[in-house]
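Running this now, will post back.
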Amino acid sequence: MTQGGGEEKSTFRWLDAARYAVAAAVTVLIMAVIVNAIKVVLRTESLQLSVRGGAVSAAPFRPPPEEVLAVELNLRAHNPSGRVRMYYLNISAYLFDKSTPASASLNPGFDCVIIFKPQDIAVLQQEAVDSMLALKAKKNSVGAPYFDVLYNGSRVSDMTLRLDGNLVTEVTSDLNKTRPASYYCEQLLVGGNPDDEAINVSVQAMFDASPLTMSETMTVMPRDDRTRVPLYRHPGPCSPPSSFTGAAKATPSLADLLRRDQLRVDHIHWRLSESEGVGVSEGSVKEPVRFGVAYLHDQPVIQVRIGSESKGSEQQQQQQRSPPGVVQTVVLDTASDVPWVQCAPCPVPPCHPQADSTYDPARSSTYDAVSCGSPACEQLGRLYGGGCANGQCRYRVPFPNSNLSSSSGTYGTDLLAVGPNSGITFKFGCSHAEAGQGGSSDSDNTTAGVMALGGGPESLVSQAAANYRNAFSYCIPAATERRPAGFFVLGAPPSADSSAYVATPMLRYPRVPTFYLVRLQGITVNGQLLNVTPSVFATGTVLDSRTAVTRLAPTAYRALREAFRGWMAVYTAAPPRGSLDTCYDFSGAFFVAPPRIELVLERGNVLELDRSGVLFHDCLAFAPNSDDRMLGILGNVQQQTMEVLYDVGGGAVGFRRGAC
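Update: finished.
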């Protein structure tokens, strides 16, 4: 019995062991299946890129003596995955010849023949997206000797396209993977018409753990350090620090910003309606409103030095190399003519509190009041003249308020320094009062005044013309930029740099010289030209540094809105926000990819807007005028990240993308 019971127990033990072994094996198998399923779900798919037709077209765009070459290629991005969305971001594209291996170049911007800057690419599951890469290149921007070869109609074979960027795969809005990715498209045929013979192109992706820094190849700083100063948004995270702690005010609502924006637009239209040849319908321009400094939220500002006041002894020890004068934070305004700052004495109210020390003309040995009857005083005219007092010339600059408030005071001269080693004798308004404005809750202003850059004889540009070639430029950083990436510079760049700009003629109206205008010929959305006749844009478009949202003729706006809504159908529409009638709810969206918008300028040059210049508070950043015959206005939202060069003396405007 005992022996038999032991055999029975032993048998059960073997059965238990077998059961455990089977259970363990099943568990391992189940875990392997689960792990494999997780790997399948999370597996990173490869975005497939190809050059359609295997060719890059290159043909003369302008005849001699200008000789501009138009270069285009169609890049197709295909997402083979049925599970994840893919994004290729921060892309730079380079064309290489056989002399330099594209994959071996550590400085592709220098080694390549041609540089493109594509838009970001977003591709839904199992879909394909075409992107047209296009540029208009002058001779000095294409590697020698290829410009002449391509311009004369010949072709170059066996070239390589290299694309550097960041590849993002999104499984859910909370689960994604980002990795640097470089693509190489070999054996490309460059030149001629893209519909001609094609070459089969194999596109392979190679992932590089050390991608190039995009800003090192795409950002070009202004040339003239003598007058270069940082440009900030006011108020913003990178604005100059405020010494007036009580000046901070709550951020205005979107409705308030749009209301103030419209006041400025109305004033510009009213001013221009006084000029002969500017078409507006009767009653379409509202009663004249005056503008100056009231609308200041998110405006471009710089710091300058005015006067010859010396530092105190303690400050001298800390700032021995600082030039004399008082630092003043001023708003850049391309649509006004008379510069002005607040001057002591200027009690609050009627003046507004400012961040900087108030400029005191009594403490500057180089200050002098402009005398009554002098040419400078007479030049102010009826618009800016404020009469005379004690033999001194008075000025008055109105603001855009219903009570017609204004800045007024003595018109005087003193030294002005823009940048570390520049200086001119400068005429400006010395404000001692702001009628109807001081202390108003409508103002979020802590600046010292306005630096007028208009085309009138009183502006900084006109006064500095002899020294700085009657030109200036600026770059306004994107609203989301948290570093002082913008800049302002007096003077024009060297002629050798002109090929970096998309250029177009500057228009002026002699009776209202304040404003600078360009003329559009069309608008494209993702490469498709809107069905709008060029005559709709014939009256011109004003360039304004302080209007936010671009204004278009209603006919052009409706066409743009329809095309934009079509490309944005994947996103959830939201109710209109004031004058912005095409808005979206992006909550839950991992990445927002608005369509590419390009402005076709006079002479056919194409200006692609930065992605930050397409949306404003999650809405299409354009609005219609009330009449097709009213002038358009190119606002600062659309100007973001690009250098805008005003070559007033040369009668041209240039745009350089990716400058800040």
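Residues 1-42 form one domain. More later if anyone needs it.
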